[in-house]
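A quick aside before the break. I want you to see a complete sequence-to-structure record at least once, exactly as it would be stored in a machine-readable document. Don't worry about memorizing anything.
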Amino acid sequence: MTESSQMTGTIRHCRYRDLDRVIPIYNHYVSNTIASLDIGTKPLLYMQKLYNSVLDQDLPFLVVTASDDHNPPRNEEDILGYAYAHFYRRLPAFGGTVEILLYLDPTATGQRIGEKLLRVLMDSLKAVAPGTDRDHGIREVLAIVPVGEGRDASSFFLRESFEDRGLLKGVGWKMGRWIDTRILQRSLDDEPKDKKTPVRKKRGSARHWWSSLFRRR
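That is the input. The structure line, written in tokens, reads:
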């Protein structure tokens, strides 16, 4: 990919019809790396359920495309990556804390696309309003990074103002070995909010983020 094509990437909210182009990116990391500790490639239905679960929590699910416009991408290679947040624990007491995940197409790495995508995701989280299950909005953001023998994503998050909260030894098993995970944290509580960013509306009292509606969007 050229430098010019890197600069024309568009970050936007994911649409339901994007998911068949998102799932191959995830399955690459499932099959070939420890970046995901999932075992076995996933069908499209898996990503559809995940997508609806994230939206049901009123949290962002973003994609970055290689096009300049906001039209749905027509080719699989048009989607360069995706990122989303979900609640860290399924208990109301943890409603202000989310975990984020970010995956790039292997051909899109090393071009600062991930940094741009992460920054937009963080801005989107700052704009999430208080709701039924999060009285104070989103306060804490976690990234839980598998650590292998070589390079891992810890430095990526540390460059973006996350702080290292420690290493969990041997908590995952994949590719014939035990995998450590590192927890990184960034607090949004003291960060300025962008007043120009549209704030998501507070949800009604009848809805809860643990409900599984799996609506088609």
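Two observations worth writing down. The first strand starts at residue 10 and ends at 13. The first helix runs from residue 3 to 7. We'll return to this after the break.
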